[in-house]
Amino acid sequence: MSKLIFVLNGPNLNLLGTREPGIYGILKLDDIAIKLSRLAKGFGREIDFRQSNSEGDLVDWIHEAGEKKADIILNAGAYTHTSIALMDALLAVDCNCIEVHLSNIFKRESFRHNSFISRASTGIISGFGAKSYELALLALADQTS
Ligand code: DQA
Q: Which of 105, 143, 111, 142 is nearest to 125 (CA)?
């Protein structure tokens, strides 16, 4: 059976499309979800796409991914730079996590250069807009068990 992929999105990503389009692009989160779901099907993978502005929801969803032995694609938004709770949750589960960002966080303000998520992730894809999610999916594509 192919592994489920949880695609988890953090705070303010529900505003994609209108939020600072010069930085984050004009696609809405729903557009990204649809694209990604199609692409995943092509790889024989299923995705569960979610967004929350609450840190606790994201922690709970990481635990759920652990129970379901799912892979994780995570854009934690600003929690990337602040959340030891999310890092600990990722370290507590046995999941392959790919960290994604639409923008290149290393090209931006210095407070965005630290990622607690990176410390608990297999890899990071940052700076390719909505394509960052697709590249993360490619990274997981051939891992079926
Ligand atoms: C982001 C980068 C973060 O620094 C920022 O707080 C976000 C979005 C990105 O996708 O580029 O909310 O994760």
A: 105
